[in-house]
Structures are given as structure tokens and as C-alpha cells.
Amino acid sequence: MISFIQRLHVSRICREGLFSIKSDVFSFGVLVLEIVSSRRNKGFVHHGHNLNLLGHAWNLFKEGRELEIVDSCIVNSYHSSEVLRSIQVALLCVQQSPEDRPDMSSVVFMLGNDLLMPEAKQPSFFMERNIVNGEMSITTLEGR
Fold first, then answer.
1. pTM of the predicted model over 0.70
2. How many CB atoms lie within 10 A of CB 96?
3. Nearest-CA neighbor of 61 among 107, 109, 95?
4. Averaged over 90-106, what is the pLDDT?
5. Distance set, CA 18 to CA 11, 23, 29 (Å)
6. Which of 47, 102, 118, 129 is most buried, judged by most C-beta within 10 A?
7. Can you give the residue ranges of the Serine-threonine/tyrosine-protein kinase catalytic domain (predicted)?
8. Are 95 and 120 in contact (CB under 8 A)?
């Protein structure tokens, strides 16, 4: 059922022309989070909750623990300030409202410069999965 809904949504996006530059920015943000964590958003599993990768990254960011998302295999091979900046830019890219997402030239500028960035808002597709008896349901969490 979920796969059908996703295909229907993609079909609607293509048919109605809702795919945009902001969709590319969103995808870039997801890709950055996947690279930093070495985990895919699709099928992401965490022992402490049922959130997807975006929800997990968002919660860590809100709690000031965003470096916990970094793959343990690369812990000693990066500058924390660069990774923190990458995570914050990724979260700006996946904000729920496309109007709040930066364009790619702004993303490149933010990644390459040490400047104050806007505060990220809740990501889009921030979902909690409930798995009961092998069946999965999705709950979209709304921000305050």
C-alpha cells in the first residue's frame, strides 16, 4: 500500500508539474544526511524509535546531539565544524515548506563559507513507522 501511495504521489508530481528546483534541493539534503550517517533514509531503523532518517536527524539537531548521526567508521577523520555545517545545511534543504528551502547556489555558499545560517525548521516527510505483526503503518508528525 505504501509503495502504491508513493508511486501515486510521484505520478501526481510529474503530471501536475509540481517537481521543481526545490525538489532537487530536498533530494540533496537527504543525500547529505545519508552520506554523513552512511545510512539510507528508506528503510532506516533505530533501536530507540521508529522515525525515518530525517526525523532522527531532526531530533538529534533539536537536542544539540547532531554529531551522533555521523557514521562511527569516520569519527576520527573529519572536522566537527564542517560536519555540523553539512548537517545544518541538509536540514535546511529538507524543510517542510519548499519556500523555506534554500536554492542550490545558497547551499553551495553556506557549505563553503563560515557564516551564521538560518535556523532549520521541521523537515518534510518526518514520519514515524509503527510495525505490528509484520504490518507497517506510517504516522506523519506535525510540528508545533
1. yes
2. 16
3. 95
4. 93
5. 10, 9, 18
6. 102
7. 15-108
8. yes
- Mean pLDDT taken over the chain: 77
Radius of gyration of the chain from Cα atoms?
16
pLDDT at residue number 127: 58
Looking at residue 121, the DSSP 8-state letter turns out to be -
Three-state secondary-structure class, residue 16: helix
Cα-Cα-Cα-Cα torsion 66, 72, 77, 81, nearest 10 degrees, comes to 0
Structural domains present in the chain:
21-140 (1.10.510.10)
| Close Cβ partners of 71 (under 8 Å, ≥ 6 residues apart) | 36, 37, 38, 39
Over the stretch 42-67, which tens digit does the pLDDT of each residue have? 877 766 667 888 888 999 999 999 99
